[in-house]
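[job 0412] stage=complex_fold ligand=MV4 status=START
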Amino acid sequence: MFEKILIANRGEIALRVIRACREMGIKSVAVHSTADSDAMHVRMADESICIGPAPSSESYLNKAAIISACEITGAQAVHPGYGFLSENASFAQALEDHGITFIGPSAEHIRIMGDKITAKETAKALGIPVVPGSDGGVADFEAAMKAAEGIGFPVIIKATAGGGGRGMKVAKSAEELEMAFRTARSEAKNAFGNDEVYIEKYLQKPRHIEIQVFGDGKGNAVHLGERDCSLQRRHQKVFEEAPGPAITPKMRAEIGTICANAVAKINYIGAGTVEFLYEDGNFYFIEMNTRLQVEHPVTEYIFGVDLVREQIRVASGMEMSFGQDDLEINGHAIEVRINAEKLPNFAPCPGKVRTFHAPGGLGVRMDSALYGGYSIPPHYDSLIGKLIVHGRDRPEAMARLKRALGELIIDGIDSSVPLFHMLLAEPEIQNGDYNIHWLEKWLAAKFGN
Ligand code: MV4
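[job 0412] stage=complex_fold status=DONE, emitting structure tokens
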């Protein structure tokens, strides 16, 4: 087992990893930018080291500085958290070249899943159901039209190098295709420096359902059910729950087994998420994320496992501490993402937090790096905390969420807490009756944005 791990991240996820390290008797090293000298992850880690100025491009994304920090502190492994360098194949490769373990999958698996066409081809070859679409990229408008006519309208054009919703265009008819194709291509070129696009059948009212998988790198893998993450605004998740309100045990076992077998077959190591659109009883693969996700705590809650601990175990060559037969769902969990944002426009509002009081009690988990007197720097993501609740069933979890939100105090800045009080009052949220468009429609009706 590693003696010392460096966490190449900040905020609540850095704390999450430091906590797992401490329980495992592993020393932790925090890295930070000059803007984060007073950050909680720096205080909580056993050691810390400054890796650059405030902009993430010069600090949390600075591979050479992070590798130097490992060498200076003697860290044998790096946990990347989510975002930043967590899905950067060349970073994983560079660490390996320096004899440092990347706590995550191989550079090759990161690369395959980072390219949306190879990801889809790989998924399909492994028996995962995919959205009907063009086989690979479409080179020109004629090829696009031919593919679209084969699939049937409406279609969606996506960037091969995209992900997270950037560079997508919908064409409802043949007339709309040319414009959509040209716009998607030029946006892809601008955003990713790669103008390759592919085409899929456009699903009109799906849910976003993602399957948590976990492999040991030696041909064994399990699934830990699904999360329903359909409530999103501008491709940012807002509210996540497990199990999914629309998913039956039979469907879970079927799609879960398919995903676990697929990742076992490629000797996948560590945590992964297979993302699907779910409509009318069918799952359609869209992407795979090769990292620990923000919303992993809802899965941890219902299965009673520590996913970060398992990531560290398998990265060090140990076996996972559980198999599929040990995994049984217990109750229901919900996460809400607390952002430093002001309604109605969700404008980021960093600033000084006067008072911070985290809720507690049975079935309540608050993952946050806030403290009273802390100044949220303006340079990074607006996520300032995650409130996760667990109950024996969905109604109990919903009641607990409402109660816990009422206890949460974040004074001095605006946050998304009022949004959740409003959302919880909506019958469709209470009933779990929503899809990927519900939140944006509701926001448009409520705030006109
Ligand atoms: C789609 C789709 C409909 N049909 N693909 C958006 C982000 C990226 N991960 C995939 N996305 C979508 N792909 C087909 N074939 C609709 C979306 C989509 C979406 C997906 C998940 C959650 C929120 C979304 C909001 C708008 C569009």
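The longest strand covers residues 221-233.
[job 0412] exit 0
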